[in-house]
Protein backbone atom coordinates (compact mmCIF):
# COMPACT_ATOMS: atom_id res chain seq x y z
CA UNK A 1 0.00 0.00 0.00
CA UNK A 2 2.26 2.74 -1.22
CA UNK A 3 -0.16 5.38 -2.45
CA UNK A 4 -3.26 6.38 -0.55
CA UNK A 5 -6.61 5.48 -2.15
CA UNK A 6 -8.59 8.26 -3.76
CA UNK A 7 -11.73 9.54 -2.11
CA UNK A 8 -14.30 8.83 -4.77
CA UNK A 9 -17.26 6.98 -3.26
CA UNK A 10 -20.59 8.53 -4.26
CA UNK A 11 -21.70 8.76 -0.63
CA UNK A 12 -18.68 10.84 0.34
CA UNK A 13 -19.86 13.74 -1.82
CA UNK A 14 -23.17 14.15 0.00
CA UNK A 15 -23.27 16.40 3.09
CA UNK A 16 -21.95 14.86 6.30
CA UNK A 17 -24.51 12.24 7.40
CA UNK A 18 -25.59 11.71 10.98
CA UNK A 19 -23.53 9.15 12.86
CA UNK A 20 -25.38 5.91 13.58
CA UNK A 21 -25.03 3.74 16.69
CA UNK A 22 -22.01 1.88 15.37
CA UNK A 23 -20.24 5.09 14.50
CA UNK A 24 -20.99 6.48 17.97
CA UNK A 25 -19.53 3.33 19.51
CA UNK A 26 -16.41 3.64 17.38
CA UNK A 27 -16.06 7.31 18.28
CA UNK A 28 -16.43 6.55 21.97
CA UNK A 29 -13.57 4.09 21.76
CA UNK A 30 -11.38 6.26 19.60
CA UNK A 31 -11.47 4.36 16.31
CA UNK A 32 -11.15 6.69 13.38
CA UNK A 33 -13.54 5.96 10.54
CA UNK A 34 -15.53 7.69 7.79
CA UNK A 35 -19.27 8.16 7.77
CA UNK A 36 -20.77 7.00 4.51
CA UNK A 37 -24.41 7.46 5.47
CA UNK A 38 -26.93 4.70 5.10
CA UNK A 39 -27.76 2.43 2.20
CA UNK A 40 -31.19 2.12 0.60
CA UNK A 41 -32.56 -0.06 3.40
CA UNK A 42 -31.17 2.19 6.12
CA UNK A 43 -28.17 0.05 7.02
CA UNK A 44 -25.31 2.09 8.42
CA UNK A 45 -22.29 2.16 6.11
CA UNK A 46 -18.89 2.90 7.59
CA UNK A 47 -15.69 3.50 5.69
CA UNK A 48 -12.53 2.12 7.26
CA UNK A 49 -8.88 2.64 6.43
CA UNK A 50 -7.07 -0.63 5.70
CA UNK A 51 -4.59 -0.10 8.54
CA UNK A 52 -7.36 0.20 11.15
CA UNK A 53 -9.60 -2.40 9.57
CA UNK A 54 -8.62 -5.43 11.61
CA UNK A 55 -8.84 -3.68 14.96
CA UNK A 56 -12.20 -2.10 14.12
CA UNK A 57 -13.60 -5.44 13.00
CA UNK A 58 -12.47 -7.11 16.22
CA UNK A 59 -13.88 -4.24 18.27
CA UNK A 60 -17.22 -4.64 16.51
CA UNK A 61 -17.16 -8.34 17.23
CA UNK A 62 -16.81 -7.53 20.92
CA UNK A 63 -19.63 -5.04 20.49
CA UNK A 64 -21.93 -7.92 19.54
CA UNK A 65 -21.55 -8.15 15.77
CA UNK A 66 -20.73 -11.83 15.72
CA UNK A 67 -21.91 -12.92 12.28
CA UNK A 68 -20.20 -12.06 9.01
CA UNK A 69 -23.21 -12.16 6.79
CA UNK A 70 -21.80 -11.25 3.45
CA UNK A 71 -18.40 -10.22 2.24
CA UNK A 72 -17.58 -9.24 -1.27
CA UNK A 73 -15.86 -6.68 -3.37
CA UNK A 74 -16.73 -4.29 -6.08
CA UNK A 75 -14.92 -2.09 -8.52
CA UNK A 76 -15.77 1.60 -8.58
CA UNK A 77 -14.78 1.85 -12.21
CA UNK A 78 -11.70 1.91 -14.41
CA UNK A 79 -8.89 3.73 -12.67
CA UNK A 80 -10.83 4.09 -9.44
CA UNK A 81 -10.74 2.23 -6.15
CA UNK A 82 -11.46 -1.38 -5.40
CA UNK A 83 -13.83 -1.73 -2.46
CA UNK A 84 -14.31 -4.54 0.02
CA UNK A 85 -17.56 -4.60 1.92
CA UNK A 86 -18.40 -6.59 5.02
CA UNK A 87 -21.96 -7.00 6.19
CA UNK A 88 -21.95 -7.72 9.91
CA UNK A 89 -25.02 -8.51 11.98
CA UNK A 90 -25.52 -9.12 15.69
CA UNK A 91 -27.08 -12.54 15.43
CA UNK A 92 -26.22 -14.21 18.73
CA UNK A 93 -28.06 -11.72 20.93
CA UNK A 94 -31.31 -12.20 18.99
CA UNK A 95 -31.20 -15.92 18.37
CA UNK A 96 -31.99 -17.03 21.88
CA UNK A 97 -34.53 -19.77 22.43
CA UNK A 98 -36.88 -17.69 24.56
CA UNK A 99 -37.14 -15.15 21.76
CA UNK A 100 -37.24 -17.80 19.07
CA UNK A 101 -40.77 -17.24 17.92
CA UNK A 102 -41.01 -13.49 17.80
CA UNK A 103 -37.76 -11.64 17.46
CA UNK A 104 -38.58 -8.30 19.05
CA UNK A 105 -35.56 -6.03 19.39
CA UNK A 106 -34.44 -4.75 16.01
CA UNK A 107 -31.57 -6.49 14.34
CA UNK A 108 -28.32 -4.54 14.49
CA UNK A 109 -26.56 -4.40 11.16
CA UNK A 110 -23.60 -2.55 9.77
CA UNK A 111 -21.64 -2.56 6.54
CA UNK A 112 -17.94 -1.85 6.65
CA UNK A 113 -16.26 -0.66 3.50
CA UNK A 114 -12.57 -0.54 2.82
CA UNK A 115 -11.36 1.46 -0.17
CA UNK A 116 -8.18 0.21 -1.76
CA UNK A 117 -6.15 1.68 -4.55
CA UNK A 118 -6.02 -0.64 -7.55
CA UNK A 119 -2.35 0.22 -8.20
CA UNK A 120 0.14 -2.38 -7.12
CA UNK A 121 -1.09 -5.12 -4.82
CA UNK A 122 -4.21 -4.09 -2.92
CA UNK A 123 -3.83 -5.72 0.47
CA UNK A 124 -6.09 -6.08 3.44
CA UNK A 125 -5.72 -8.05 6.68
CA UNK A 126 -7.76 -11.25 6.60
CA UNK A 127 -10.66 -11.54 9.03
CA UNK A 128 -10.34 -15.32 9.16
CA UNK A 129 -9.07 -15.29 12.74
CA UNK A 130 -12.14 -13.51 14.10
CA UNK A 131 -14.77 -14.62 11.57
CA UNK A 132 -14.09 -18.08 10.20
CA UNK A 133 -16.87 -17.49 7.72
CA UNK A 134 -14.53 -15.11 5.90
CA UNK A 135 -12.51 -18.08 4.66
CA UNK A 136 -14.04 -18.74 1.26
CA UNK A 137 -15.65 -15.37 0.89
CA UNK A 138 -12.26 -13.68 1.05
CA UNK A 139 -10.81 -16.24 -1.31
CA UNK A 140 -13.57 -15.43 -3.76
CA UNK A 141 -12.81 -11.72 -3.51
CA UNK A 142 -9.15 -12.46 -4.12
CA UNK A 143 -10.15 -14.60 -7.08
CA UNK A 144 -12.40 -12.02 -8.66
CA UNK A 145 -10.71 -8.72 -7.74
CA UNK A 146 -7.11 -9.56 -6.90
CA UNK A 147 -7.34 -8.16 -3.40
CA UNK A 148 -4.81 -9.90 -1.21
CA UNK A 149 -5.75 -10.94 2.29
CA UNK A 150 -2.81 -11.00 4.64
CA UNK A 151 -2.89 -13.85 7.11
CA UNK A 152 -5.42 -15.92 5.22
CA UNK A 153 -4.74 -19.64 5.71
CA UNK A 154 -5.29 -20.58 2.04
CA UNK A 155 -4.53 -17.51 -0.07
CA UNK A 156 -5.38 -18.90 -3.49
CA UNK A 157 -8.07 -18.82 -6.10
CA UNK A 158 -11.40 -20.40 -5.25
CA UNK A 159 -13.62 -20.54 -8.31
CA UNK A 160 -11.43 -19.78 -11.30
CA UNK A 161 -8.75 -22.23 -12.47
CA UNK A 162 -5.59 -21.94 -10.40
CA UNK A 163 -3.50 -20.74 -13.36
CA UNK A 164 -5.97 -18.09 -14.46
CA UNK A 165 -4.55 -14.70 -15.36
CA UNK A 166 -6.34 -11.54 -14.41
CA UNK A 167 -9.18 -10.59 -12.10
CA UNK A 168 -12.49 -11.26 -13.86
CA UNK A 169 -14.85 -8.96 -11.97
CA UNK A 170 -12.70 -5.85 -12.24
CA UNK A 171 -14.24 -3.44 -14.67
CA UNK A 172 -11.06 -3.14 -16.71
CA UNK A 173 -10.77 -6.90 -17.17
CA UNK A 174 -10.42 -8.01 -20.77
CA UNK A 175 -11.68 -11.47 -21.50
CA UNK A 176 -9.03 -13.49 -23.36
CA UNK A 177 -9.96 -14.83 -26.79
CA UNK A 178 -13.29 -13.07 -26.78
CA UNK A 179 -15.22 -12.91 -30.01
CA UNK A 180 -18.77 -12.09 -30.91
CA UNK A 181 -20.82 -15.09 -31.90
CA UNK A 182 -21.49 -13.68 -35.36
CA UNK A 183 -17.75 -13.45 -35.98
CA UNK A 184 -17.14 -17.06 -35.09
CA UNK A 185 -17.18 -18.40 -38.64
CA UNK B 1 6.90 -48.98 23.31
CA UNK B 2 5.22 -51.63 21.22
CA UNK B 3 4.91 -50.71 17.60
CA UNK B 4 1.93 -51.73 15.61
CA UNK B 5 2.93 -54.02 12.78
CA UNK B 6 0.06 -52.81 10.65
CA UNK B 7 0.86 -49.13 10.89
CA UNK B 8 0.64 -47.36 7.54
CA UNK B 9 1.76 -44.08 6.15
CA UNK B 10 -0.84 -41.32 5.69
CA UNK B 11 -2.45 -41.60 2.31
CA UNK B 12 -3.82 -38.83 0.14
CA UNK B 13 -7.02 -39.83 -1.61
CA UNK B 14 -8.79 -37.78 -4.18
CA UNK B 15 -12.58 -37.89 -4.19
CA UNK B 16 -14.29 -36.33 -7.14
CA UNK B 17 -15.06 -34.21 -9.01
CA UNK B 18 -16.72 -37.15 -10.72
CA UNK B 19 -17.50 -39.26 -7.72
CA UNK B 20 -21.07 -40.52 -7.42
CA UNK B 21 -21.63 -39.32 -3.87
CA UNK B 22 -20.03 -35.90 -4.27
CA UNK B 23 -23.37 -34.24 -5.03
CA UNK B 24 -22.27 -32.84 -8.31
CA UNK B 25 -18.74 -31.75 -9.06
CA UNK B 26 -17.20 -31.23 -5.64
CA UNK B 27 -13.67 -32.49 -5.24
CA UNK B 28 -12.23 -33.44 -1.88
CA UNK B 29 -8.54 -34.12 -1.42
CA UNK B 30 -8.51 -36.18 1.73
CA UNK B 31 -5.51 -37.24 3.79
CA UNK B 32 -6.23 -40.52 5.51
CA UNK B 33 -4.48 -42.31 8.33
CA UNK B 34 -5.93 -45.76 7.91
CA UNK B 35 -9.62 -45.06 8.13
CA UNK B 36 -9.37 -41.74 9.94
CA UNK B 37 -9.51 -38.44 8.13
CA UNK B 38 -6.56 -36.27 9.11
CA UNK B 39 -7.15 -33.46 6.69
CA UNK B 40 -9.41 -32.54 3.86
CA UNK B 41 -9.26 -29.87 1.23
CA UNK B 42 -12.36 -29.13 -0.79
CA UNK B 43 -11.71 -27.93 -4.32
CA UNK B 44 -14.62 -26.17 -5.95
CA UNK B 45 -15.19 -24.14 -9.08
CA UNK B 46 -15.87 -26.92 -11.56
CA UNK B 47 -19.33 -25.51 -12.21
CA UNK B 48 -18.39 -21.86 -12.10
CA UNK B 49 -20.18 -19.96 -14.85
CA UNK B 50 -19.54 -16.41 -13.70
CA UNK B 51 -23.13 -15.59 -12.82
CA UNK B 52 -22.12 -12.30 -11.21
CA UNK B 53 -20.33 -11.24 -14.37
CA UNK B 54 -23.28 -12.36 -16.49
CA UNK B 55 -25.61 -10.32 -14.31
CA UNK B 56 -23.62 -7.18 -15.01
CA UNK B 57 -24.53 -7.43 -18.70
CA UNK B 58 -28.19 -8.36 -18.33
CA UNK B 59 -31.34 -6.52 -17.49
CA UNK B 60 -33.39 -8.11 -14.77
CA UNK B 61 -35.88 -9.72 -17.15
CA UNK B 62 -33.00 -11.19 -19.12
CA UNK B 63 -31.25 -12.49 -16.05
CA UNK B 64 -34.13 -14.25 -14.28
CA UNK B 65 -34.08 -17.29 -16.62
CA UNK B 66 -30.42 -17.84 -15.75
CA UNK B 67 -30.70 -17.94 -12.04
CA UNK B 68 -32.55 -21.18 -11.49
CA UNK B 69 -29.43 -22.82 -12.91
CA UNK B 70 -27.58 -21.80 -9.79
CA UNK B 71 -29.44 -23.91 -7.27
CA UNK B 72 -30.99 -26.32 -9.71
CA UNK B 73 -32.84 -28.14 -6.96
CA UNK B 74 -34.47 -24.97 -5.71
CA UNK B 75 -34.43 -22.44 -8.50
CA UNK B 76 -37.41 -20.41 -7.31
CA UNK B 77 -35.44 -19.07 -4.35
CA UNK B 78 -32.88 -17.51 -6.62
CA UNK B 79 -35.58 -16.15 -8.90
CA UNK B 80 -37.15 -14.59 -5.83
CA UNK B 81 -33.97 -12.96 -4.55
CA UNK B 82 -32.96 -11.72 -7.99
CA UNK B 83 -36.22 -9.84 -8.41
CA UNK B 84 -36.39 -8.78 -4.76
CA UNK B 85 -33.17 -6.80 -4.93
CA UNK B 86 -34.12 -4.31 -7.69
CA UNK B 87 -37.69 -4.30 -6.41
CA UNK B 88 -36.54 -3.02 -3.04
CA UNK B 89 -34.10 -0.58 -4.58
CA UNK B 90 -36.87 0.91 -6.72
CA UNK B 91 -39.44 0.81 -3.89
CA UNK B 92 -41.92 -1.22 -5.93
CA UNK B 93 -44.70 -2.62 -3.80
CA UNK B 94 -46.01 -6.09 -4.45
CA UNK B 95 -49.75 -6.81 -4.48
CA UNK B 96 -50.98 -9.13 -1.81
CA UNK B 97 -52.06 -11.82 -4.22
CA UNK B 98 -48.68 -11.81 -5.93
CA UNK B 99 -47.00 -12.05 -2.55
CA UNK B 100 -49.15 -15.05 -1.63
CA UNK B 101 -48.39 -16.74 -4.94
CA UNK B 102 -44.70 -16.18 -4.25
CA UNK B 103 -44.97 -17.67 -0.78
CA UNK B 104 -46.78 -20.71 -2.12
CA UNK B 105 -44.11 -21.22 -4.76
CA UNK B 106 -41.27 -20.72 -2.29
CA UNK B 107 -42.72 -23.13 0.23
CA UNK B 108 -43.34 -25.76 -2.46
CA UNK B 109 -39.74 -25.18 -3.40
CA UNK B 110 -38.59 -25.62 0.17
CA UNK B 111 -40.34 -28.97 0.33
CA UNK B 112 -38.84 -30.01 -3.01
CA UNK B 113 -35.43 -28.91 -1.80
CA UNK B 114 -35.65 -30.87 1.44
CA UNK B 115 -36.98 -33.89 -0.41
CA UNK B 116 -34.07 -33.82 -2.79
CA UNK B 117 -31.83 -33.56 0.24
CA UNK B 118 -33.50 -36.42 2.08
CA UNK B 119 -33.20 -39.02 -0.65
CA UNK B 120 -29.51 -38.59 -1.45
CA UNK B 121 -28.65 -38.18 2.23
CA UNK B 122 -30.26 -41.52 3.07
CA UNK B 123 -28.52 -43.01 0.06
CA UNK B 124 -25.24 -41.62 1.43
CA UNK B 125 -25.73 -43.43 4.72
CA UNK B 126 -26.77 -46.60 2.97
CA UNK B 127 -30.54 -46.65 2.52
CA UNK B 128 -31.64 -46.63 -1.09
CA UNK B 129 -35.42 -46.83 -0.76
CA UNK B 130 -36.21 -43.25 0.33
CA UNK B 131 -34.62 -42.04 -2.88
CA UNK B 132 -37.53 -43.49 -4.84
CA UNK B 133 -40.10 -42.26 -2.35
CA UNK B 134 -38.97 -38.68 -2.54
CA UNK B 135 -39.06 -38.69 -6.31
CA UNK B 136 -42.66 -39.79 -6.15
CA UNK B 137 -43.55 -36.80 -3.95
CA UNK B 138 -41.37 -34.33 -5.79
CA UNK B 139 -43.09 -35.23 -9.03
CA UNK B 140 -46.31 -33.75 -7.62
CA UNK B 141 -44.62 -30.44 -6.93
CA UNK B 142 -43.15 -30.39 -10.41
CA UNK B 143 -46.56 -31.09 -11.90
CA UNK B 144 -47.91 -28.11 -9.99
CA UNK B 145 -45.08 -25.92 -11.27
CA UNK B 146 -45.60 -27.14 -14.78
CA UNK B 147 -49.23 -26.11 -14.60
CA UNK B 148 -48.42 -22.65 -13.27
CA UNK B 149 -45.15 -21.77 -14.96
CA UNK B 150 -44.85 -24.18 -17.88
CA UNK B 151 -41.59 -25.64 -16.66
CA UNK B 152 -40.77 -28.34 -14.16
CA UNK B 153 -37.34 -28.47 -12.58
CA UNK B 154 -35.55 -25.29 -13.56
CA UNK B 155 -36.11 -22.35 -15.86
CA UNK B 156 -39.49 -21.61 -14.30
CA UNK B 157 -38.82 -17.97 -15.10
CA UNK B 158 -41.81 -17.11 -12.97
CA UNK B 159 -40.80 -14.22 -10.74
CA UNK B 160 -40.95 -10.67 -12.03
CA UNK B 161 -40.26 -7.31 -10.47
CA UNK B 162 -43.52 -6.43 -8.73
CA UNK B 163 -45.05 -9.89 -8.73
CA UNK B 164 -45.03 -13.01 -10.85
CA UNK B 165 -45.16 -13.59 -14.58
CA UNK B 166 -48.74 -14.88 -14.77
CA UNK B 167 -51.65 -15.70 -12.52
CA UNK B 168 -52.30 -19.20 -11.22
CA UNK B 169 -54.44 -21.19 -13.63
CA UNK B 170 -58.01 -22.02 -12.69
CA UNK B 171 -58.20 -24.91 -10.23
CA UNK B 172 -54.52 -24.78 -9.37
CA UNK B 173 -55.03 -23.97 -5.70
CA UNK B 174 -57.30 -26.98 -5.30
CA UNK B 175 -54.60 -29.17 -6.76
CA UNK B 176 -52.15 -27.57 -4.39
CA UNK B 177 -54.42 -28.40 -1.47
CA UNK B 178 -54.72 -31.95 -2.77
CA UNK B 179 -50.96 -32.11 -2.70
CA UNK B 180 -50.90 -30.90 0.92
CA UNK B 181 -53.40 -33.52 1.99
CA UNK B 182 -51.49 -36.17 0.16
CA UNK B 183 -48.04 -35.13 1.28
CA UNK B 184 -48.81 -34.72 5.01
CA UNK B 185 -49.15 -38.46 5.69
CA UNK B 186 -46.08 -39.09 3.55
CA UNK B 187 -43.90 -37.19 6.03
CA UNK B 188 -45.27 -39.46 8.75
CA UNK B 189 -44.35 -42.38 6.55
CA UNK B 190 -40.77 -41.15 6.22
CA UNK B 191 -40.54 -40.60 9.93
CA UNK B 192 -41.84 -44.09 10.65
CA UNK B 193 -39.22 -45.50 8.35
CA UNK B 194 -36.28 -43.34 9.26
CA UNK B 195 -36.44 -41.25 12.42
CA UNK B 196 -36.25 -43.98 15.02
CA UNK B 197 -34.61 -46.54 12.82
CA UNK B 198 -31.80 -47.92 15.01
CA UNK B 199 -29.44 -48.45 12.08
CA UNK B 200 -29.90 -44.89 10.91
CA UNK B 201 -29.59 -43.36 14.35
CA UNK B 202 -26.44 -45.24 15.30
CA UNK B 203 -24.97 -44.30 11.98
CA UNK B 204 -25.38 -40.55 12.25
CA UNK B 205 -25.98 -39.52 15.84
CA UNK B 206 -23.12 -37.38 17.11
CA UNK B 207 -21.60 -37.20 13.66
CA UNK B 208 -20.28 -33.89 12.38
CA UNK B 209 -21.30 -31.97 15.47
CA UNK B 210 -21.10 -28.16 15.32
CA UNK B 211 -21.44 -26.03 18.43
CA UNK B 212 -23.55 -22.91 18.58
CA UNK B 213 -20.58 -20.56 18.59
CA UNK B 214 -18.87 -22.36 15.75
CA UNK B 215 -22.03 -22.23 13.68
CA UNK B 216 -22.31 -18.47 14.12
CA UNK B 217 -18.61 -17.86 13.61
CA UNK B 218 -18.56 -19.87 10.39
CA UNK B 219 -21.44 -17.83 8.94
CA UNK B 220 -23.60 -20.93 8.64
CA UNK B 221 -27.23 -20.44 7.85
CA UNK B 222 -30.43 -22.35 7.34
CA UNK B 223 -30.84 -25.83 8.79
CA UNK B 224 -27.09 -26.00 9.49
CA UNK B 225 -27.40 -23.04 11.85
CA UNK B 226 -30.76 -24.00 13.32
CA UNK B 227 -29.63 -27.53 14.13
CA UNK B 228 -26.86 -26.05 16.31
CA UNK B 229 -29.20 -24.35 18.74
CA UNK B 230 -29.66 -21.03 16.95
CA UNK B 231 -33.34 -20.37 16.29
CA UNK B 232 -32.72 -18.03 13.39
CA UNK B 233 -35.01 -17.86 10.43
CA UNK B 234 -35.01 -14.84 8.14
CA UNK B 235 -38.70 -15.38 7.45
CA UNK B 236 -39.27 -14.39 11.07
CA UNK B 237 -36.46 -11.87 11.35
CA UNK B 238 -36.97 -9.86 8.19
CA UNK B 239 -40.76 -10.25 7.89
CA UNK B 240 -40.50 -10.32 4.13
CA UNK B 241 -43.33 -11.22 1.75
CA UNK B 242 -46.40 -12.20 3.82
CA UNK B 243 -44.96 -14.82 6.17
CA UNK B 244 -46.30 -12.90 9.16
CA UNK B 245 -49.86 -13.74 8.11
CA UNK B 246 -49.40 -17.40 8.88
CA UNK B 247 -49.08 -19.43 12.04
CA UNK B 248 -45.90 -21.41 11.94
CA UNK B 249 -42.84 -22.18 14.04
CA UNK B 250 -39.14 -22.04 13.47
CA UNK B 251 -37.76 -25.58 13.43
CA UNK B 252 -34.57 -25.86 15.43
CA UNK B 253 -32.57 -28.36 17.48
CA UNK B 254 -29.68 -28.15 19.89
CA UNK B 255 -27.33 -31.06 19.21
CA UNK B 256 -25.73 -29.74 16.03
CA UNK B 257 -25.03 -33.19 14.59
CA UNK B 258 -26.26 -34.82 11.39
CA UNK B 259 -29.27 -36.25 13.18
CA UNK B 260 -30.32 -32.80 14.41
CA UNK B 261 -30.00 -31.44 10.89
CA UNK B 262 -32.17 -34.29 9.65
CA UNK B 263 -34.87 -33.51 12.22
CA UNK B 264 -34.77 -29.79 11.46
CA UNK B 265 -35.39 -30.44 7.78
CA UNK B 266 -38.22 -32.90 8.42
CA UNK B 267 -39.85 -30.41 10.75
CA UNK B 268 -39.39 -27.65 8.20
CA UNK B 269 -41.27 -29.68 5.64
CA UNK B 270 -44.15 -29.93 8.09
CA UNK B 271 -44.05 -26.19 8.73
CA UNK B 272 -43.92 -25.45 5.03
CA UNK B 273 -46.97 -27.63 4.55
CA UNK B 274 -48.60 -25.68 7.33
CA UNK B 275 -47.89 -22.39 5.58
CA UNK B 276 -49.04 -23.78 2.24
CA UNK B 277 -52.39 -24.88 3.65
CA UNK B 278 -53.01 -21.47 5.17
CA UNK B 279 -51.82 -19.60 2.10
CA UNK B 280 -54.11 -21.59 -0.20
CA UNK B 281 -57.07 -20.60 1.97
CA UNK B 282 -56.17 -16.99 2.67
CA UNK B 283 -54.96 -15.92 -0.77
CA UNK B 284 -56.73 -12.72 -1.92
CA UNK B 285 -59.13 -13.73 -4.65
CA UNK B 286 -59.93 -16.85 -2.73
CA UNK B 287 -59.24 -20.51 -3.20
CA UNK B 288 -62.02 -20.90 -5.72
CA UNK B 289 -60.48 -18.27 -7.98
CA UNK B 290 -63.60 -16.80 -9.46
CA UNK B 291 -61.83 -13.49 -9.87
CA UNK B 292 -61.30 -13.69 -13.57
CA UNK B 293 -64.95 -14.35 -14.38
CA UNK B 294 -65.94 -11.63 -11.96
CA UNK B 295 -63.54 -9.17 -13.54
CA UNK B 296 -64.89 -9.94 -16.99
CA UNK B 297 -68.55 -9.57 -16.05
CA UNK B 298 -68.24 -6.48 -13.85
CA UNK B 299 -65.21 -4.79 -15.33
CA UNK B 300 -63.58 -2.09 -13.25
CA UNK B 301 -66.31 -2.27 -10.58
CA UNK B 302 -65.38 -5.78 -9.61
CA UNK B 303 -63.57 -5.79 -6.30
CA UNK B 304 -61.05 -8.14 -7.87
CA UNK B 305 -59.81 -5.31 -10.04
CA UNK B 306 -58.17 -3.79 -6.96
CA UNK B 307 -54.43 -3.65 -6.44
CA UNK B 308 -54.22 -6.45 -3.92
CA UNK B 309 -55.86 -8.91 -6.29
CA UNK B 310 -53.29 -8.47 -9.04
CA UNK B 311 -50.60 -11.03 -9.70
CA UNK B 312 -48.15 -8.32 -10.66
CA UNK B 313 -48.07 -4.68 -9.62
CA UNK B 314 -47.35 -3.15 -12.97
CA UNK B 315 -45.35 -4.96 -15.53
CA UNK B 316 -41.99 -3.26 -15.65
CA UNK B 317 -40.68 -2.27 -19.02
CA UNK B 318 -37.74 -4.23 -20.44
CA UNK B 319 -35.84 -0.96 -20.19
CA UNK B 320 -36.42 -0.76 -16.45
CA UNK B 321 -33.54 1.17 -14.94
CA UNK B 322 -32.11 0.03 -11.64
CA UNK B 323 -32.02 3.21 -9.57
CA UNK B 324 -28.90 4.71 -8.07
CA UNK B 325 -28.05 3.20 -4.73
CA UNK B 326 -27.03 -0.02 -3.09
CA UNK B 327 -28.51 -2.59 -0.76
CA UNK B 328 -28.03 -6.08 0.53
CA UNK B 329 -31.20 -8.13 0.51
CA UNK B 330 -31.62 -11.68 1.69
CA UNK B 331 -34.13 -14.44 2.11
CA UNK B 332 -34.32 -17.82 3.73
CA UNK B 333 -33.97 -20.57 1.15
CA UNK B 334 -34.13 -24.27 1.83
CA UNK B 335 -30.36 -24.31 2.24
CA UNK B 336 -30.00 -21.15 4.24
CA UNK B 337 -29.58 -17.48 3.68
CA UNK B 338 -29.19 -16.38 0.10
CA UNK B 339 -28.58 -12.74 -0.50
CA UNK B 340 -27.84 -10.24 -3.21
CA UNK B 341 -25.68 -7.18 -2.83
CA UNK B 342 -26.92 -4.92 -5.58
CA UNK B 343 -25.48 -1.64 -6.77
CA UNK B 344 -27.48 0.36 -9.25
CA UNK B 345 -26.20 3.29 -11.30
CA UNK B 346 -29.47 4.27 -12.95
CA UNK B 347 -28.77 1.94 -15.83
CA UNK B 348 -30.66 -1.07 -17.10
CA UNK B 349 -27.92 -3.38 -15.89
CA UNK B 350 -26.63 -3.55 -12.33
CA UNK B 351 -23.17 -2.22 -11.57
CA UNK B 352 -22.45 -5.01 -9.12
CA UNK B 353 -24.53 -8.07 -8.43
CA UNK B 354 -22.89 -10.02 -5.64
CA UNK B 355 -24.69 -13.26 -4.88
CA UNK B 356 -24.24 -14.71 -1.42
CA UNK B 357 -24.94 -18.41 -1.79
CA UNK B 358 -26.08 -20.33 1.25
CA UNK B 359 -24.28 -23.55 0.56
CA UNK B 360 -20.97 -21.90 -0.34
CA UNK B 361 -20.85 -20.60 3.21
CA UNK B 362 -22.19 -23.81 4.69
CA UNK B 363 -19.61 -25.91 2.89
CA UNK B 364 -16.65 -23.95 4.27
CA UNK B 365 -16.84 -25.74 7.58
CA UNK B 366 -16.63 -29.21 6.02
CA UNK B 367 -12.86 -29.80 6.42
CA UNK B 368 -13.09 -28.79 10.06
CA UNK B 369 -15.88 -31.16 11.00
CA UNK B 370 -14.37 -33.97 8.95
CA UNK B 371 -11.12 -34.07 10.93
CA UNK B 372 -11.12 -37.20 13.04
CA UNK B 373 -14.08 -38.73 11.30
CA UNK B 374 -13.97 -42.06 9.50
CA UNK B 375 -13.69 -42.24 5.76
CA UNK B 376 -17.21 -43.65 5.47
CA UNK B 377 -18.52 -40.67 7.42
CA UNK B 378 -17.31 -38.20 4.81
CA UNK B 379 -20.35 -38.90 2.69
CA UNK B 380 -22.75 -38.73 5.62
CA UNK B 381 -21.39 -35.40 6.86
CA UNK B 382 -21.19 -33.92 3.39
CA UNK B 383 -24.72 -35.13 2.71
CA UNK B 384 -26.03 -33.49 5.84
CA UNK B 385 -24.74 -30.07 4.73
CA UNK B 386 -26.99 -30.09 1.65
CA UNK B 387 -24.90 -28.67 -1.15
CA UNK B 388 -25.79 -28.14 -4.78
CA UNK B 389 -22.63 -27.38 -6.65
CA UNK B 390 -24.37 -25.11 -9.11
CA UNK B 391 -25.09 -22.80 -6.22
CA UNK B 392 -21.71 -23.19 -4.54
CA UNK B 393 -19.82 -22.32 -7.73
CA UNK B 394 -22.38 -20.05 -9.35
Descriptors for this entry?
heterodimer; A: 185 residues; alpha/beta; Beta Polymerase, domain 2; 5-stranded mixed sheet; two-stranded parallel ribbon; 4 helices; 7 strands; disordered N terminus; B: 394 residues; alpha+beta; 3-stranded antiparallel sheet; 16 helices; 46% helix
Topology readout:
The complex is a heterodimer of chains A (185) and B (394).
Chain A: H1 10-13, H2 21-28, E1 34-38, E2 44-48, H3 50-62, E3 67-75, E4 82-89, E5 109-116, E6 123-125, H4 134-145, E7 148-150
Parallel strand pairs in A: 2-5, 6-7
Antiparallel strand pairs in A: 1-2, 3-4, 4-5
Chain B: E1 11-15, E2 27-33, E3 36-43, H1 51-55, H2 60-67, H3 75-89, H4 96-124, H5 129-149, E4 159-160, E5 163-164, H6 172-194, H7 198-204, H8 212-217, H9 223-226, H10 234-237, H11 258-282, H12 291-298, E6 325-332, E7 337-344, E8 352-356, H13 358-363, H14 366-370, H15 377-385, H16 389-393
Antiparallel strand pairs in B: 1-2, 2-3, 4-5, 6-7, 7-8
What proportion strand of chain B? 5-15%
Radius of gyration over C-alpha positions of chain B, nearest whole angstrom: 22 Å
First and last CA, distance of chain B: 53 Å
Structural class by SSE content of chain B: alpha+beta
Beta-strand share of residues of chain A: 15-25%
Offer a quick outline of the entry.
Chain A has 185 residues and is an alpha/beta fold. Chain A is built from 4 helices and 7 strands, in the order ααββαββββαβ.
Detailed description of the structure:
- The complex is a heterodimer of chains A (185) and B (394).
- Chain A is of the alpha/beta class and 185 residues long.
- Chain A is built from four helices and seven strands.
- Chain A has one domain: NADH:ubiquinone oxidoreductase Nqo5 subunit (Beta Polymerase, domain 2, 2-Layer Sandwich), CATH 3.30.460.80.
- Helix content of chain A is 20%, strand content 22%.
- In chain A, the strands form two sheets. Chain A has a five-stranded mixed β-sheet.
- In chain A, a hairpin with a 6-residue loop joins strand 3 and strand 4.
- The longest helix of chain A is centred in the first third of the chain and has 13 residues.
- Chain A is elongated.
- The N terminus of chain A is likely disordered.
- Chain B has 394 residues and is α+β, with helices and mostly antiparallel strands.
- Chain B is 46% helix and 11% strand.
- Chain B contains 16 helices and eight strands.
- In chain B, strands 1-2-3 form a three-stranded antiparallel β-sheet. Chain B has a three-stranded antiparallel β-sheet with strand order 6-7-8. Chain B has a two-stranded antiparallel sheet with strand order 4-5.
- In chain B, a hairpin with a 2-residue loop joins strand 2 and strand 3.
- Classes of the chains: A alpha/beta (185), B alpha+beta (394).
- At the A-B interface, strand 3 and helix 4 of A face helix 8, strand 6, strand 7, strand 8 and helix 13 of B.
